[in-house]
Amino acid sequence: MGSASVLSAAVLSAPWLIGALLLDHFLGEPKRWHPLVGFGLFADYLEATLNRDSARRGRGLLAWALAVLPLTLGAWALASLPIIGWVFSLLLLYLAIGLRSLAEHAEPVIKALREGDLAEARLRVSYMVSRQTDELDEEGIARATTESVLENGSDAVFAALFWFALLGAPGVVLYRLSNTLDAMWGYRNARFRQFGWAAARLDDALNYLPARLVALTYALCGRTRQALHCWRIQAPAWDSPNAGPVMAAGAGALNVSLGGPAIYQGELHQRPTLGAGPQAKAEDIDRAVKLVRQGVVLWLLTLAVLWGLLYA
What we know:
Layout: H1 3-12, H2 14-27, H3 35-50, H4 56-79, H5 84-96, H6 99-114, H7 118-126, H8 138-185, H9 197-220, H10 224-234, H11 243-254, E1 257-259, E2 262-264, E3 267-269, E4 273-275, H12 282-311
């Protein structure tokens, strides 16, 4: 696929992107029977069956293929059907993005912090992050939540839009399922270090370009020069090749300091500082949510301009 074809496909995807974002805005994430819940149960079964004995890397790759490829091919087949395929593609993209969910998870943390209820804030942020939250102070809670909003904005919103724009329904299914498996299997511990290697690396590959587009988007929607500087200087020191650029640029755009020490599974991790400016506060969580929303608007406006240039 040439660059002109890629650009044309992205522009033509605009109605589906707008439609899915509107569904997400008005309906939010399904409270019951979300397909990813069923997929998670299937992934748990595969892991329990295959994550044992020797050759765990190979078994992990096989598990990833069994979990992701049949559903991706099924999405391609259904999306190819006339009329029904259009509706199916729209619903798939709606289920894959989580812009409203991002705000719905962040708002209770903001509310608890503003009311001085640290116990409730710690509980609420524990739903969003994998680090230990039971000893976080106000700044630690605000920092963890802001980081989660910036990173999940990339994973659960922009990357899903990117892969749909590029490859349609099969693209967003391939990405979203791979990202889910990374969240389930991508841990660097005794249980998953070998088995989850393939899921983690494949998610890194699928997120590589979207993450850098998101970093640029955050920069353009905030303090651009500072965000680009933080991305260039700080991101290489972060342990994730994709979260680093996203969070460094986002922190720089917001003029807030993120990163620093955090406890994961009982172990203290000395993480580098990201961004610049004062430590995060409750209002910075809200500013991060707004940054993600502004980025989505920027992407849609860019597609609208490209539509006009290509089809005027």
